[in-house]
Amino acid sequence: MSIETSPGHHRRRIALAAVASLLAFATGAQAQPRGGPSIGVGRITSERTCNLYQESEGRSAVVVSPYVIAAASSWRTWLVRDCVDNFASIRTSLEAALASSGKFIVKPGGATYVVSGRISDVGGEGGPAPGAPSSRDGYSISSSKMFVNMDVTVRDAAGRIVYGALLTKSLETGSDISTGGFRATSSQSGQALYTQLQHEVALAVARQVAFHLVPMRVTGGDGRQIQLSYGAPMLTLGTIVMATSADGATTLRYNVTSAGAGMATAQLDGDGDPSRIGPGSIATVIEADDPAANGRRFKRVELPQ
Q1: CATH code for the domain of 205
Q2: Domain boundary pick from 188, 214, 240
Q3: pLDDT digits (tens, 9 = 90+) for 264-291
């Protein structure tokens, strides 16, 4: 038995099939993950600060009777080891920093890239500033810092190391300025200090890893003012950025003037030919505690005729 259909009915069936295909394609496209390559944070090891305590417990008793006087005593000694994991939550902080970039999908397992590292040499330094006079009528300046070193590696899904870095981060913990009858002192310590240093380390590591895997680029601007492909919290107000032209012939220094979600604006700091800095130029960050942050800048000055 055969059923004949009209040409109009056949055309409607074709149209409905086409609509169904478009809906299926759109649904599949929406289901695809967005945000760039997947990344995970693996093992992060850190120093442990341990203190050893000795404690004792004793007991004594005296028995007296008409026939005998006796005394007895017993003592017990043991050791207590109190250990604190410095930067215990650095893994969580690093995951949050990478996720906030908007360039990666952070996954607990099965990621394209895995970041791991080791934190060591947590210490501090301080004392009078070099060259400060010790005379009674002069002035004195002293400061103290805390620093930490971290070795960072990034591996791909096959276990190959695709990136490595050695990071040193320092943070001022206190300062003292004395001149004449005036004295100003500031300091911080304890858990608040560890939390702040941990935050700075996580952001610095996230910047190094993110900018290596998904480089920061100039997306617009006239050269004197540029737009960047990363935003807060990777970049904040005052962050120093070095932008290099596409042909590598020019590198100029910029200061971030505003940062939002996924983008930032930076202003030229110094002199140079900004016409070579345009969309596609690669940009990198100079950390605030890097000596390069205090490098000389020159500005063109028009001399009188």
Answers
A1: 3.40.50.10610
A2: 214
A3: 999 999 888 899 999 999 999 999 888 7
